[in-house]
Design a protein that fits this description.
By secondary structure, the protein is α/β, with parallel strands linked by helices. The protein has 2 domains: 34-149 and 193-352, Response regulator (Rossmann fold); 381-552, Glucose Oxidase, domain 1, CATH 3.50.30. Helix content is 39%, strand content 13%. The protein is built from 21 helices and 14 strands. The strands form 3 sheets. Strands 7-8-12-11-10-9-13-14 form an 8-stranded mixed β-sheet. A 4-stranded parallel β-sheet has the order 2-1-3-4, sandwiched between helices. α18 (414-422) links the parallel β9 (403-411) and β10. The longest helix is centred in the N-terminal third of the chain and has 20 residues, at 92-111. It starts with a helix and ends in a 16-residue tail after the last helix.
Length: 562
Amino acid sequence: MPENLKSQVVTQGVQRSPNRAMLRAVGFGDEDFNKAIVGIANSYSTITPCNMGINQLAQRAEIGVRAAGAMPQMFGTITISDGISMGTEGMKYSLVSREVIADSIETACTGQSMDGVLAIGGCDKNMPGAMIAIARMNIPAIFVYGGTIKPGHYDGKDLTVVSSFEAVGQYSAGKIDDAELTEVERNACPGAGSCGGMFTANTMSSAFEAMGMSLPYSSTMAAEDAEKADSTEESGRVLVEAIRKQILPRQIITRKSIENALAVIMAVGGSTNAVLHFLAIAHTAGVKLVLDDIETIRARVPVLCDLKPSGKYVATDLHKAGGIPQVMKMLLAHGLIHGDCLTITGQTIAESLADIPETPSPNQDVIRPWENPMYKEGHLAILKGNLASEGSVAKITGVKVPKISGPARVFESEEDCLAAILAKKINPGDILIIRYEGPKGGPGMREMLAPTSAIIGAGLGDSVGLITDGRFSGGTYGMVVGHVAPEAAVGGNIALVEEGDTITIDAHSRSLNLHVDDAELSRRRANWQPKPPRYTTGILGKYAKLVSSSSLGAVTDLDLFS
């Protein structure tokens, strides 16, 4: 039995009686006190379809843990539905929930001296929240993705939740009528599971599989399919074996494995949010990772998969085409991932991929052949310039106009910008600025899916730019730049932009510049005053006080005592 359990439970004489008595009340028998205790972090809720199927998976995980000779102890953690809170004040709690999830898993596992943890998550922040906790605690752990939603269908087309947001823009532009808008809404989300495209949830689940913290193929399984439940039970067995062998997360979460995860994110066309989350995971695991490292990986890894939001297919299509193992084997064959990285199964990446062909099946076109990728370089670029001296993040592939210069249209909130788009007050060539939506300024760094989808729906996706110190949904595409740092709330130059200033977004040179001379910027800075905090109490008040720059992952434990 692991030492921490011996010290906490198997003590001598009367000192052990209270511990054992309470454990008996939750189902322990005499023989169970010599077994490892495995926490099952269950993020089940009916708040969102992403998480509503997770309780059944947690129960299957219990079966796997028991069958492998350990004792499961289930506990709950929270979720926020990004899709439901999108465009509202509630979206400010989304990124905050990543920290709450991490803190709650750490608190339960460490407070109860658990020997390992199996974390099950669905909606976007469940994944990085769980992985941050896993990296902090460094007890044997495995991540189980709750599964992707199956695509909705209407008028011969596959739908995702983003289809509903874009339909609002189409309706406002007069391109569809109320009846069609209603049909898209009714059919976009047919059941349980996380958003179906290569949005944030599927991006992070794919990355965790690539990193070795989840079982092969598990990241692209549909939530409602039997194989997802079977894989969850197997994950419980694998975790118990990892406890016996003391395979620890920080042996798996290394610089090399994070590079593997980032390479896969590029290859599948993943979400901009992955940049923020992996900066935070690396920080927690004690791995040095900076924005420029992500740019280095982008420059050498092609986009191999034709997936939504900008492509044709959804995650279930990727699964049928060979899933993440097929993508990884192609990258391994071309020297773009590290095959010697350890996985939770005890195998190396190379060993786990040994039986996977180096080329994808010719009977599908979700995963493109190596010689004919979607794009020759990755899509997540780090843009810098006088408007983002610490950096910003943009998807630069799939845009028809990679460089745009135009007049700034300045908005102090997402709501004001969306209202202008829907009122048809935005013109081709405009560059929209949405500021004071960063980690501190929001607080919480809201996602801007509503305005970006409205831009696409209005037919302005190739002619209008959008820049924000907030974030974007994984479902966002177009000439959009987020995570601008320093943010407006701390006096970044985005706070100094005035209506009509000329701004250039240049994907090729990876630059983001405000065409105002230094003397004028200095004059504006002298007159600038920080806005009073929007929240001074409660969780948002605490978050705004503690959170770091987005360029550092928006973590809340950076140099706490410095």
